[in-house]
Amino acid sequence: MITDSIRSEIDEIMTRYPAGRQRSAVLPALYVIQREFGYCPVEAQNELAEILGIAPVEVSAVVGFYNMFHEEPKGEYHVEVCTNVPCLLRGSRQCMHHFEETLGVHHGQKTEDGQFGLDHMECLGSCGTAPMAAVTDQKTGQIRYFENLDSAEDVEKVVDLLKSGKGFTTLERWTPEGDPENAGVTAGPYNHGGMDPKYLLARVKTPDSHTLASYEADGGYATAKRVLSEMESAAVIEQVKASGIRGRGGAGFPTGVKWGFLPKGVFPRYLVVNADESEPGTFKDRMIMEYDPHQLLEGIVMSAFAIEAEQAYVYIRGEYYFAYTRMQAAIAEAKAAGYLGDNCFGTGKKLEVVMHRGAGAYECGEETAQLSSLEGYRGQPRLKPPFPAVEGLYAKPTIVNNVESIANVTHVMRHGVEWYRSYGTEQSAGMRIFCLSGNVKRPGLYELPHATTLRDLIYEYGGGPELDDVPIKAIVPGGLSMKLLTPDQMDTPLDYESVAAAGSLLGSAGVIVIDERFSMVEIARRTLSFYREESCGKCTPCREGGAWLEKIMLRIEEGQGREKDLELLEYIARNIAGKSFCPFGEASVWGMQSNLAKFRHEFLDHIEATNPSSVGPDIPIRPIYRPDTHTPSGLHQNEQKPQGERIVLHDEFVPGD
Amino acid sequence: MADNVTLTIDGKQVSAAPGMLLVDAAEIANIEIPVFCSHPKLDPVGCCRMCMVEIEGPRGSRLMTACTTPVAEGMVVHTNTPQVAEVQEANLGFILLNHPLDCPICDKGGECPLQDQTMRFGPGISQLVEPKRLKQKNYDISDMIVLDQERCVLCWRCIRYLEEWEDKPQLGLHNRGNETVIDIQDGQPVDAKTSGNIIDICPVGALTNQISRFAYRPWEVERTASVCNHCSVGCNIRVDTRTHTVRRIIGRENMQVNDQWICDKGRFAHAWVNGENRLETPLLRKNGELVPVQWSEALDFIAEKLQAVKQQHGASAIGAIGSAKIGNESNYALQRLFRSVIGTNNIDHRDGADVAGLATGLPSLAGVMKPQYGPNPQVDTIFLFGIDPSEELPILDLHLKRAVKKGGAKLIIAHPRKIELTRYNGPYLAYEPGTEATLLNGLLRAAAGQKEGLNSTAVSHLADVKKWTEEADDRALADLCRTDPAAVKAAAAMLAKSEKALIIYGPQAARGSDGPAIRDGLANLAFLTGHQDRLAFVGLEANSQGARDMGVLPDRLPGHASIGSSDAVKRLEHLWECKLPTAAGQSYKQMLDGGVKALYVMGADPASERPEWAEKLDGLDLLVVQELYLTETAKRADVVLPALGWSETDATFTNLERRVQRAPKAVALPQSRAAADWAILSHLAQKLGAKWHFADAKALEAEIGKAAPIYRGLTWEALGDQGLQWDASALKSKPELKEVRQKMAKGSKEYPLTLVTGTVLFDGGTLFGATEKLDGVTVGPVVGLSPADATKLGLTEGAAVAVSSPEGSLSLTVHISEQVQPGSAWIPESLPGAPVGALLNGSVVQRVKVEKAA
């Protein structure tokens, strides 16, 4: 089934990974297979297993884990509408409905001619430009984002464009205003702003900002060249340590301290750049990679030099296809210029940077899960210790850092520690890209010093509530995982310590604003649906408890809630948080825990309104089991669909009500 | 070794080895921590979250998983706090949430850790009011194992077993999150040879035994600790019986033998014990028909006939064939009867004198197992010569894989087929059957060229060695043996470099007239490279070692004494009150080739091996067969005596490392008049005028201890349920170098391929074939061809062909396999309806041609 040309493509992919680690090629190779066949046929999986020297079941286990690999064809154009909370707040339900109307199919289905497949999707990192859909062109494997799809007309335009075959003339994001085919202009970078001068986002609006020429014209790579020729590795680590850069992925661990954990004298070492930006409400890394990739690359060159790694992998989420191509091009340019490769800047230092696409799994943002994924396994977390710095990728010392963290390295090395520490606070130094989404007038990215207040961010930069007459009800300060804040906490400075003191965490700085139009019951349920969908399934509490929470919330939503369910929810959440294998457990329930604590009355009101006598649901009669050896019970053919099917939309939903 | 650390668990001081996991340390203190994913034989994974305990720390106590946390000095652990209790209860609640609770019809019910832990740590009631999640039930992952995904708690034990022990991932997690299931890849059932172990370690009823499905309730069975009788490893098992039938077999731990694992043949192929066609009464041929008779009539007839033949043709016209499938007691009784009462040494068994074995077996299985448990491997290199553990001795195969993967042992393989273990990339020495001694000379020659690592005594003969082996140069290796000379050099270098290498050869490698030369060639190599103490011959049957130990050989008395050994003769003549015959007897092959007039066969079926032998059996004056089933041989007998088999009578078996182990009576056959082999022989002896009075197997064991000094003290009681090894030191002979030559078979244009035979695990033999549910995995009547030869002959997979040699012809179907070397045709023994003996007809090396069936 695998032809010679696919085979040679896979052979090339295998060369990107160290000898004996060809298993790492499994995800990229599956992309090739899926592009060729429209899905991943079992036969091709088996042949791939043989090529990679692994068992067929090891390939099928991987295919099943990642959302972006299909076991059946999804249509020529696979349309996936984000329905996660930030998009929900901006009308993703209507957007999905418009697609359903326009295409004449329900989500989860394919058009009769097989041209379009329609599905709902979890956060795609486009929260500032919601609602939106990502479309995959099966023939090429390319993915393009279609954003700001506020009206039925917008959706029709998208469908028409795709039908005309011109949907993929560029991979840059499409918006109703930014449509080169019709309006003649590309959309360019999405809305951003913040302090003056900006650093991380300073260049994104420059024409051709992604090219080497443009980057060098702005002084790019001079720092890397100086650092590599003049500094010792240890001095770079010291400088980063002194700057106080803290991890921008969510945990906020000091970057330089992490680098200091590397065991002495153990090589090779690896740098893995975590570009798996998947925390709902977070879309900053995407901008850096799409519009200023060299800024990141320069940071990678210096970070790899500091930790003495000669190989760096950028693990980018599979949906960020445009960012992936921009990074690929940037790497090629940098390599041609001699900034990467066997002799970086003529210093004799070596560095190869390889882009590695994930394939749709939130858990792969967790560093050990990311390493498992990069090694070609299911993206499930590993036991710590050993920590990645000691035994990470391929059991070698490995540093995993977020894109924004590495981009900060570029600026700390360029401008120095004191400059960096002049922004923010003692503990939360430097500037931060805040991702503002939800019910504000101007959602987008805002580069501001740490400790800017929530109020300034939302009102001064975000323009205040989306609708002047609908007040803000709740704010998620650091990505969907984090606990909710309420409007009375609007003066909380957005730094690690202050947000923690306010009862939440700064996380990935994804600030999601929720206004009074939305039911907190729905927010809680939709949040839980996300974690149910994204749980990797490794440990019991998260796998079982997470799905149970969603089932209960669905029941409450549908009018069969009982008051005592709220205690049950709390009990379950308490026994997931801190009992799970990895931090995902906590992340999955914090939102609901804080929601229940702060908005309990909404849950009680909903139950009172829909199920006043607290009647329990009809418990289905348990299936009958027969001790019949060879006849299947037939239970799996049961009509009952998994709960996940019902998450987003109900058939009877009519927009514009 | 670092000193033990001391920690406190629930107020008890515990001393534990550094690195030990908390869950194991708690066990020392007799504190139970509930687990699902954790297993003492598997690497920790920490996914079930059942074993949470509180560990005191500088910032208060923290909940940690005991199965992933190593002990530390001064650690303070609590397993019984209210917080721990809540977590345990909640977690069990999570596990049970979607569990179908179909315990009444679950085979695990009654021995289910999930039931037990729910009882002890779980919630009393489920709070779930929504529908349960549905997954696949009654889902076959192979012909032997049923998966119920709803019962599964996703502990990964099965996945980890197949990865960590079998090194053969065949089960994996599929899908994600709440939808996660264990599954196989579509169309690829689990076929690891020890797959059934995942049933034993499954902590719930997710994986159940297809063969024993719904055939037992754990609390209703009688459990008998026994040993398996399918191969010479002698895995310890437990036989579960009820109403006189074997209901199931599971593994039993013996850290000297099989750890806790058993192979699928041992686990699943037991239907033969309670087979419908078992012989239940003596049969005597009257007017050409075998008709049921009383025991006395049958035995009288035999006694009379034996005496008549003896009178007419002498004792040397009478022969007896014993069996390596039968226990020591009966084999001992057989050879005693024929030596002391009849007066002949015509005693042998299949693969007995016709195979050049060694007396002492493997030094120890634990020596192979050791690397996986400790840093001091007892062997660092293993050289397999003409043996395929994956098909012949699956648990040895498991140990070897583990020794390579965890212990870093090196594997060298010489085999006419590129057997499965060659995947570990040690040197692979392919060879053409009939050129073994030349290959060994080539190895010796290469070893002689090594600068270091040679035995200092042997080195003084290097000049001789170089002279003898001159002809086994690279060219001879490449042209005659079809062995890669570079691999030979690499193997010789590894053997010389090795501190402790183990060299194992099997019957396939040393059969027939070349056998002694091959054995000597191996001994030369072992001696020169300093491994003479670890050269082992390994028989394949459950009692291959025991049959030899008991003297079921034409030239050896019990205890491996030569028939000319005056000490032994004196001892036995005194013990048996007789005069022993002095002439060496005939071998199995010689007797069947027509060397005797009367033949007494106990548990062997030579008629099915070769058509010519079947004819010769018809022409005997007397043929007596003691059997379980009416075999091809039994059909030709004058008298057929129904025997009790393994698990129906107490017996001891001696495994490949000389471990004598008990296989007690576990079932009775109330309707049957069959008797233990030794009891039949004992009655016959009395009919023949001898004064035998063995009341039970123990009485025979007592006598064996007297007859064979190596068995002294190995009584039923002393053996216990883990067995005892007999001491081989008395049998060690002084190593010497011998010149070895092998006559080369000539090539033939008419018959272009060399026949390669051997054993497959799932064959068509009587024992395996009786379990009909396993028909699907039985190797059919196939001939294996290399892809190159298949292409040359224009044959595709499954093509019907006629394979013929100068001796005969067989109809087979083609199986194309990379394992088969170009220029050879692979036909395993005991394939259903296709006796490869028809092509060999007693020869060891044979050439064949393969033609499309007309």
Features:
heterodimer; A: 657 residues; alpha/beta; 5-stranded mixed beta sheet; 23 helices; globular; disordered C terminus; B: 854 residues; Ubiquitin-like (UB roll); Rossmann fold; Dimethylsulfoxide Reductase, domain 2; 8-stranded mixed beta sheet; 6-stranded mixed β-barrel; 37 strands
Secondary structure topology:
The complex is a heterodimer of chains A (657) and B (854).
Chain A (H helix, E strand, L loop, with lengths): L3 H11 L11 H12 L4 H11 L3 H10 L11 E6 L2 H4 L3 H12 L5 E2 L5 E6 L11 E5 L4 E5 L5 H12 L28 E3 L17 H6 L4 H9 L2 H11 L11 H5 L10 E6 L8 H8 L1 H15 L3 E6 L4 H16 L4 E4 L4 E9 L9 H8 L23 E5 H13 L1 H5 L9 E8 L5 E6 L4 H8 L10 E5 L19 H6 L8 E6 L4 H15 L5 H21 L2 H14 L7 H27 L47
Parallel strand pairs in A: 1-3, 6-13, 7-8, 7-11, 8-10, 12-15
Antiparallel strand pairs in A: 1-4, 2-3, 4-5, 9-10, 12-13, 14-15
Chain B lengths: L4 E5 L2 E5 L5 H7 L23 E4 L6 E4 L10 E3 L3 H16 L15 H9 L17 E2 L4 E3 L9 H8 L7 E3 L6 E3 L13 H5 L5 E3 L12 E6 L8 E7 L2 E7 L12 H5 L14 E4 L2 E4 L2 H19 L4 E4 L6 H15 L4 E2 L16 H5 L11 E5 L3 H4 L1 H12 L4 E6 L12 E3 L5 H13 L7 H4 L2 H7 L5 H8 L3 H13 L3 E5 L9 H14 L6 E3 L6 H6 L6 E2 L3 E2 L3 H11 L11 H8 L2 E5 L8 H8 L3 E6 L4 H4 L3 E6 L6 E4 L4 E5 L11 E2 H11 L9 H11 L8 H4 L4 E2 L27 E4 L9 H4 L12 E4 L1 H7 L6 E6 L2 E9 L7 E3 L10 H4 L6 E6 L2
Parallel strand pairs in B: 1-5, 16-17, 16-25, 18-19, 18-21, 19-20, 21-22, 25-26, 26-27, 27-30, 32-36, 33-35
Antiparallel strand pairs in B: 1-2, 3-4, 3-5, 6-7, 7-10, 8-9, 11-12, 12-13, 14-15, 14-27, 23-24, 28-29, 29-31, 32-37, 33-36, 34-35, 34-37
